[in-house]
Amino acid sequence: MPRDRIGVQQWSIRDAITRADGSASGYLGGRAFPYDPADLGPLVPLPGGFASVFRYLASVGYRGFEFFSFDQGANGAITTEQIRAALDRAGLVAAGSHTGGLQSMIDPTYRQNEIARARVLGYRMIGTAGNPGPGSPPSGLLADWRRWAQQANEVGAALRAVGIKYFFHPEQDWFRFFDDPAHPELARVHRIDWFTDNTDPRLVAFEPDTMHTLAGRARFPDPVDGSLFDHNRWYARLAAQRRLIAWHIKDADRIPVPAAGTNPFTQEHARPLFPLNAGVDVVYVGEGSIGKGYPCDIDPAVLGFPETFSRFRLSDPGWFHTESDAGPGPAATDPGRSLRWAKVSAAYMLSLAGRRGHGARHSRAARS
Fold this sequence. Notes:
With 368 residues, the chain is α/β, with parallel strands linked by helices. It has one domain (3-367): Divalent-metal-dependent TIM barrel enzymes (TIM Barrel). Helix content is 32%, strand content 13%. The protein has helices at residues 14-18, 49-59, 80-90, 102-105, 108-121, 142-160, 191-197, 210-219, 231-240, 289-292, 305-311, 337-353; strands at residues 6-9, 25-27, 43-45, 64-67, 93-97, 125-128, 165-168, 204-206, 246-249, 253-254, 265-266, 268-270, 280-282, 319-322. The strands form 5 sheets. It has a 5-stranded parallel beta sheet with strand order 5-4-1-14-9, with helices on one face. It has a 3-stranded parallel beta sheet with strand order 6-7-8, with helices on one face. The protein has a two-stranded antiparallel ribbon with strand order 2-3. Strand 4 (64-67), helix 3 (80-90) and strand 5 form a beta-alpha-beta unit. The two termini are 16 Å apart. The model is unreliable at 362-368 (pLDDT under 50).
């Protein structure tokens, strides 16, 4: 894992980006945190807005920043050029964006605007965490998925022509089965498998989310034999086709008795002796059952982060992005949580960076 490929997804720290710089104070964790949950460090004014947050992220070891929005809320309007300048001053690079929803990207004007922004900020991957079509969940009909696969290839071709990769970040709905009375033969086919097989590997890439993939595996067992989606086989297929281009490294703990058909993971847990928010804290990257793998997790197919990153190699641009949906804490009781999560999670990632075998395939161009 190259140190210069460790990034963070903006969603994890969304409260910090939109909060006025210095308008709140919080705890970012002391030297012994989280091993000593009471070592919160001093109460400090919290960074807010792109420029201040970029400086903080760089100071704790991040190199890349993946956007989902270009709005900094209470910190006022900011141009793309100003965001680029703030990145440069902090020593960060823009790693990509999640502003590439498929039904938006098929509009040539929208797509060209996204390309123009990518050129200013310097990233070479545009994608989405959304479904390929409307609805939550979207249609389960083959005709719709055929249309979306064709659209994805068209968008991917347009971006490839200007040196940008188009990617999908599949969340749990993607792991559902088809539901099409006209095609009962697809009732045991996961939509993500079909989409992977029916899009061009040269044009459509993927950025898997470690938690959402495993939640999809658990939620949608085979309707006949109960078998689970083979996520490791899917990762291997993507890696072999050189379309595995980034990770969203999202840790969580397995819920002992989840409700049937629901996400069996939680990104928060009670931390003994933790003095904030009634003892409830976020799961930091590397401390959850997903990050540690089996037998900490009950599923033998959960490999843990070190083995996953070693076994399934990334292709360019090869980013390792930490992420948590539960990063922001309650503003009244733990406003520093998301930035503390970023700091602790970066330390874990940096601990992996020096290990042999934890890396990505990189061309010289990918390092620029």
